């Protein structure tokens, strides 16, 4: 079946683009392994794992089999008053992997909703404990937590992609973004701003939410794990819940199974998504400690007031089980370590005038430019190089599937080496968005 690009251009609204002057789209006919096969016969090596989700690549036989088998039973059933084997099996697998204190799982249907559920948990918990004054949330500058209204309110209110909506958003508190880089020596003064925020506002704070170690769509910033340890200490000191948004970082992306493992801490609430289902079907989860679950459940309302129609979708849970069983083999550790070693070849790109910085951690390679990228021009050049890399703002990044072969990653790196030497920057403000 051919793809009607004229209809697409006139009627289909793609992410972070204009209907009046949309960015070009490239029609994909099929995908396999780390390759995207275009309608015109060209083949692209995927450097983004479809927004960081397809960690095992495309058309994976084990994941395909899980979907096919579940489809013969049922594709969906409501989770209200009903349960099913894939949801229970996935829950058991998750509890074998996540920090030990996280014992309760709320399934959601997207990462943004998982963060919204986490906020509800925190607010209901504080209400149940008789702390109605603890109704605000502390977030970080340069943060990104989603595109729905509650999650937009947690994103950077000045430099974030949702700044235009500030008048309609809940007013939260924001601490300065961590500045100490991942591999630098931590100094006690690096935590002074966060200590001051807690000392001044703790009586109002229900929770502190952050993306551990890697701030994603807010700027692809890597920061020191000691910041997480300090956050845990301050939350304990001031009776504030710590919410860790692991939607982008979970399941091995940063070289640890979860980014919080770099600091050896346990959050009170954790949000998972993206790679949870291996990039097959939208699925997310919000996990919390027994302390949080018991507090909510013993409150005046008792129930957690949320219930997505497609929560715990059987197809999604079944393929997530298959994905997590691959994770449990531990092969991801070797794969991610090899990717990290190869991504070091990006480091010399800092010699080029257009490049501001290069950062690498786990299966993440980031090239920060000295200006905003002309997305249409850059993507056309990269497609001509046989790769799919999705820039945003002033950033190029590689977050490939873990199964990527050495030669495939070599091609992605070579393409970036070529692109940063081309004139792909412009002075006009680029449309934000990952």
From TrEMBL:
Substrates-to-products reaction catalysed: (8S)-8-amino-7-oxononanoate + S-adenosyl-L-methionine = S-adenosyl-4-methylsulfanyl-2-oxobutanoate + (7R,8S)-7,8-diammoniononanoate
Q: Whom does it interact with, and what assembly results?
A: Homodimer.
Q: Which Gene3D superfamilies match?
A: Aspartate Aminotransferase, domain 1, Type I PLP-dependent aspartate aminotransferase-like (Major domain)
EC class of the enzyme, as a word: transferase
Q: Where does pyridoxal 5'-phosphate bind?
A: 111-112, 245, 308-309
- Please state the Enzyme Commission number of this protein: 2.6.1.62
Kindly name one Pfam family recorded for this protein: Aminotran_3
SUPFAM superfamilies from the xrefs? Answer: PLP-dependent transferases
Single annotated GO MF: adenosylmethionine-8-amino-7-oxononanoate transaminase activity
Where in or outside the cell? Cytoplasm
Q: Does the keyword Transferase apply?
A: yes
Q: Which sequence positions carry the modification called N6-(pyridoxal phosphate)lysine? A: 274
Full protein name: Adenosylmethionine-8-amino-7-oxononanoate aminotransferase
| Residues holding substrate | 51, 144, 274, 307, 390
- Record key words, sorted: Aminotransferase, Biotin biosynthesis, Cytoplasm, Pyridoxal phosphate, S-adenosyl-L-methionine, Transferase
Organism of derivation: Rheinheimera tilapiae
Annotated site residues (Participates in the substrate recognition with KAPA and in a stacking interaction with the adenine ring of SAM) in this chain = 16
Q: What does this protein do?
A: Catalyzes the transfer of the alpha-amino group from S-adenosyl-L-methionine (SAM) to 7-keto-8-aminopelargonic acid (KAPA) to form 7,8-diaminopelargonic acid (DAPA). It is the only aminotransferase known to utilize SAM as an amino donor.
Chief subcellular site?
cytoplasm
What family is reported? Belongs to the class-III pyridoxal-phosphate-dependent aminotransferase family. BioA subfamily.
For this protein, the record's PANTHER family field holds: ADENOSYLMETHIONINE-8-AMINO-7-OXONONANOATE AMINOTRANSFERASE
């Amino acid at each position: 079946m051919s793809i009607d690009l004229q209809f697409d251009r006139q009627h289909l609204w793609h992410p972070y683009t204009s209907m009046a002057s949309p960015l070009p789209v490239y029609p994909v006919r099929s995908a396999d392994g780390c390759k995207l096969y275009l309608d015109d016969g060209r083949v692209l090596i995927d450097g983004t794992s479809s927004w960081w989700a397809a960690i095992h690549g495309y058309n994976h036989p084990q994941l395909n089999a899980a979907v096919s088998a579940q489809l013969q039973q049922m594709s969906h059933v409501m989770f209200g008053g009903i349960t099913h084997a894939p949801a229970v099996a996935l829950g058991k697998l998750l509890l074998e992997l996540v920090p030990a204190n996280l014992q309760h799982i709320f399934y959601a249907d997207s990462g943004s909703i998982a963060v919204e559920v986490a906020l509800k948990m925190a607010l209901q918990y504080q209400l149940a404990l008789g702390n109605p004054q603890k109704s605000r949330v502390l977030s970080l500058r340069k943060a990104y937590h989603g595109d729905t209204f509650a999650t937009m309110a947690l994103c950077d209110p000045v430099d974030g992609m949702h700044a235009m909506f500030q008048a309609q958003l809940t007013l939260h508190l924001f601490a300065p973004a961590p500045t100490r880089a991942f591999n630098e020596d931590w100094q006690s003064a690096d935590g002074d701003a966060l200590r001051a925020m807690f000392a001044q506002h703790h009586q109002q704070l229900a929770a502190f939410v952050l993306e551990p170690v890697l701030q994603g769509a807010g700027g692809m910033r890597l920061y020191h794990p000691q910041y997480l340890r300090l956050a845990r200490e301050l939350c304990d000191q001031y009776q504030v819940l710590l919410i860790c948004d692991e939607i982008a970082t979970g399941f091995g992306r940063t070289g640890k199974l979860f980014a919080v493992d770099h600091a050896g801490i346990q959050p009170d609430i954790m949000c998972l998504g993206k790679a949870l289902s291996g990039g097959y079907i939208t699925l997310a989860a919000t996990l919390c400690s027994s302390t949080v679950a018991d507090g909510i459940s013993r409150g005046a309302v008792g129930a957690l007031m949320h219930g997505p129609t497609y929560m715990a979708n059987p197809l999604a849970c079944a393929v997530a089980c298959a994905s997590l069983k691959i994770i449990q083999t531990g092969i991801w550790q070797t794969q991610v370590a090899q990717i990290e070693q190869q991504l070091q070849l990006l480091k010399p790109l800092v010699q080029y005038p257009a490049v501001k910085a290069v950062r690498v951690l786990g299966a993440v390679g980031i090239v920060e430019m000295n200006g905003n990228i002309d997305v249409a021009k850059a993507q056309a050049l990269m497609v001509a190089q046989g790769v799919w890399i999705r820039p945003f703002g002033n950033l190029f990044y590689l977050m490939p599937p873990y199964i990527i072969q050495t030669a495939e990653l070599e091609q992605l790196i070579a393409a970036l080496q070529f692109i940063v030497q081309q004139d792909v920057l412009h002075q006009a403000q680029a449309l934000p968005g990952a």
